[in-house]
Design goal:
single chain; alpha/beta; 6-stranded mixed β-sheet; 20 helices; 15 strands
Length: 556
């Protein structure tokens, strides 16, 4: 569950810390008080894109964080472990947004990208927006809703896997047959390019080693001259070598040691240094003797590098990539020269892959159809409690067996609705009014959420356009959902607000200099007063307060 929300420097929020509880939490307040800011902060922490316009005026940075309790969420724990983000069972998400629009994201103190936030959020929270009913009209959304509430995702995932395999094979076939008339000319070009690379002995040359060898040959004269000069200084200069000077020092220290034995140790160290210089000089001389300034070798290396760079330029690759390019060219030539055999084998593979896909798509269809019947009944029953006593939802799942493979199967899923007796089922977008569509969407969300294992559900004014007894039913349904999970609900309806286990009041504080939003957690008396305000406005009568008290106590 979501334990706390911290917001600093976002829109009208200067600083806000909010502690949340299990069960159903309602957020109420006047229009424009800032209820949406809370949801904005949540969405940003869950991976939504940000820009500098969201910052509070005068703030140089917005700092947002969410803390989750994932003690009973093994999927979330495993995701954190798999991504090396585990912190002994904690889950702390942070997002910062700078004045230049740049943002940073963190999970348990470690920097992550937005994709990571989005992946993790699927295990933690699900937000149902106030315009969710409009999403129902989008192509594919209805199928997505059915799939999201399936008892298992195994058949859907296997169908996508089979589709990916079929698609990869068909793309390979397209690549093989593309430009068929130019195959002969392509083969001639490939042979020419391969021959050039073989002539340059590319497959046996290590480019990095060649560069190092060329650098050594280019500097060989300098290496020999410098080394010889150092040997002269160290050992071979009879008049002023370091070796000779150290020997003189050693001799003088021997004389001192005869007079003062404490100099013996120093004298021995000097002798060791003399021996080491002598050995180092001999080693250096040996190294020089092994080297040879070879202009012909340097010229050959120059030619090799020049040839390699020219080939790389012609083939549009880096010199170090020529060996890989050679393998690609030979593989392509082999493919073209054995095209007919490979084409036949590939066509057989595609046919087999498509057969397996269609079998999987049919299994998925059967599961969808069976589940759609149950889902239709449950949604229809919920509609009757939401002020649509004659409402009937039918989810049509039509199998399009002759269509080419698609990622999510071969089904056309359509939500059909009848809101009046004797009227035929029709697509919801054609017959449902705005208010009806809102209630249909809410019924779908309530029913599908029961099967959803997401621990925190957020409903943002999904009760818009309803009231009276229907609103009370909506509140009861949301409270029922909160029996085994956390539910956050932004609402303007007193019937819904009265059902909350925790009640948060969002208000705006104004001064001459600035406007701030604050959120207060209400006690029982304050909650009754807020529900009364939602019922009767500013001037509260004893009757209105009594009504509000009855609603709150009834929910308890």
């Amino acid at each position: 569950m979501l334990k706390s929300i911290d917001i600093k420097g976002l829109a009208v929020v200067d600083q806000l810390n909010l502690e949340l509880e299990q069960g159903m939490t309602v957020l109420t307040g006047e229009t424009g008080a800032g209820k949406s800011i809370l949801l904005t902060a949540m969405k940003l922490c869950l991976g939504e894109r940000a820009d500098a316009s969201l910052l509070r005026p005068g703030a140089n940075k917005a700092d947002l964080s969410l803390e989750f309790d994932i003690t009973d969420l093994p999927a979330s724990q495993q995701w954190l472990i798999d991504n090396d983000l585990d912190d002994q069972g904690d889950c702390f998400i942070r997002r910062t947004i700078n004045a230049d629009g740049r943002s940073k994201a963190y999970i348990n103190g470690q920097a992550v990208n937005l994709k990571a936030l989005q992946q993790l959020s699927k295990h933690l929270i699900n937000i149902h927006g106030q315009h969710a009913h409009l999403d129902l009209l989008h192509p594919g959304k209805q199928c997505e809703l059915v799939d999201s509430s399936l008892p298992s995702q195994a058949l859907l995932l296997e169908c996508r896997k089979q589709y990916s395999h079929w698609k990869r094979l068909t793309e390979e076939l397209h690549h093989l047959t593309d430009g068929n008339e130019d195959n002969e000319s392509e083969k001639q070009l490939l042979k020419y390019q391969i021959n050039e690379l073989e002539q340059a002995n590319i497959i046996h040359i290590d480019y990095d080693e060649l560069v190092q060898e060329h650098a050594l040959a280019s500097n060989m004269r300098k290496i020999i001259e410098t080394s010889a000069h150092q040997i002269d200084i160290l050992y071979e200069n009879e008049n002023a070598s370091i070796y000779g000077q150290i020997n003189n020092v050693s001799h003088e220290l021997e004389l001192l040691a005869d007079l003062a034995p404490e100099f013996t140790s120093v004298g021995e160290q000097i002798k060791e240094a003399s021996i080491q210089i002598q050995e180092a000089s001999r080693d250096l001389r040996h190294q020089i003797d092994q080297q040879e300034d070879d202009p012909e070798k340097l010229s050959l290396l120059d030619q090799q590098l020049s040839s390699i760079h020219e080939l790389a330029r012609k083939l549009h690759v880096e010199p170090s990539q020529l060996s890989d390019k050679y393998n690609q060219l030979t593989a392509r030539l082999d493919l073209l020269e054995n095209r007919n055999e490979k084409l036949s084998a590939l066509q057989l593979d595609i046919a087999e892959a498509e057969t397996l896909y269609r079998k999987q798509a049919e299994l998925l269809h059967n599961e969808r159809k069976q589940h759609a019947l149950k889902l239709s009944r449950n949604i229809t029953n919920t509609l009757k409690t939401l002020g649509l006593p004659d409402g009937k939802l039918n989810i049509s799942v039509n199998h399009l067996a002759k269509q080419p493979p698609q990622k999510n199967g071969l089904d056309d899923v359509v939500f059909l609705i009848s809101t009046n007796p004797g009227m035929p089922d029709s697509p919801i977008g054609k017959v449902a009014s705005g208010g009806e569509l809102s209630r249909i969407s809410l019924a779908i969300q309530v029913v599908t959420s029961r099967r959803n294992t997401t621990p925190t559900l957020v409903f943002d004014e999904v009760d818009a356009g309803i009231g009276g007894g229907v609103a009370e039913t909506v509140g009861i349904r949301l409270r029922e959902l909160a029996c085994d999970r956390q539910v956050l609900c932004v609402t303007h309806l007193p019937q819904v607000a009265s059902q909350g286990h925790q009640h948060l009041l969002v208000s705006k504080q104004k001064s001459q200099q600035q406007t701030k939003t604050k959120i207060d957690s209400l006690n029982q008396t304050q909650k009754i007063n807020e529900v009364a305000r939602m019922l009767g406005g500013i001037d509260l009568s004893d009757k209105t307060i009594a009504h509000a008290k009855e609603m709150v106590e009834k929910a308890i």
